[in-house]
Amino acid sequence: xxxxxxxxxxxxxxxxxxxxxxxxxxxxxxxxxxxxxxxxxxxxxxxxxxxxxxxxxxxxxxxxxxxxxxxxxxxxxxxxxxxxxxxxxxxxxxxxxxxxxxxxxxxxxxxxxxxxxxxxxxxxxxxxxxxxxxxxxxxxxxxxxxxxxxxxxxxxxxxxxxxxxxxxxxxxxxxxx
Length: 177
Description:
Low-confidence stretches: none
Largest sheet: 3 strands, antiparallel
């Protein structure tokens, strides 16, 4: 198993990156704990009573936290969490103990951020209320074509764009100090 962190480690890194001090630090840590209790983030292991989270999960928590700060509701955050921690269907399968699997979207995003690539996470809403997610994983994907589409039925009328590569890189740098 690679590096794992507690929520308190994540909170220290996030508050450092955000320049928070005093009561704001306590509030941010409570918010992150609340997020991990209400949404399906799987800990990698436990140490005593503390859950330990893998690098990919820590990155997903940070992206979901930012989306929540931008106003997404609990149902949308749960959907985003599910999508980030699900297998990327277009990725090549990798060999794991017991067989083959596709990597999770967030794992691919972390790999790309570590490689210095720049990409965004976009959550769009169409005129009919459908959500369209773009993880920046493929330049030629159907989702990217929808975002560029001239078709008013398909094209999002509102988009939340998160600079995922920057947030992931900054977070990993702060955690590894």
